[in-house]
Design a protein that fits this description.
Layout: H1 13-41, H2 54-71, H3 75-81, H4 86-96
Helix pairs in contact: 1-2, 2-4, 3-4
Length: 97
């Protein structure tokens, strides 16, 4: 058992390991989405985040769309990945669909 300092109840190691594996799987999924978008568009969606060129914006929009669809991330979490607001993610989803 693992005992967290700030939690009064001990955490079962199997639950802890499953949560850790889930985070790793989600991280792997997001890197695969990033690489797929990069291969398709030729632009890495996670660089030049402030640049507003159409190619870069479309690359980021695709990444946001697939991260939401397959990563089961909230609007807030998806936006935070790229340093954007949740409303930007909503707009990206409307543009991609």
């Amino acid at each position: 058992m693992i005992i967290a300092r700030h939690v009064k109840n001990p955490i079962d190691t199997s639950i802890y390991n499953r949560m850790r594996n889930l985070k790793k799987a989600k991280s792997n999924l997001l890197s695969r989405i990033r690489n797929s978008v990069k291969n398709k568009t030729g632009i890495d969606p996670c660089i030049n985040l402030d640049y507003k060129g159409a190619e870069y914006v479309q690359s980021r929009q695709l990444f946001m769309h697939f991260a939401r669809k397959y990563g089961n991330l909230s609007l807030y979490a998806t936006g935070r990945l790229l340093g954007k607001d949740h409303s930007t993610v909503v707009h990206a989803e409307k543009c991609v669909e």
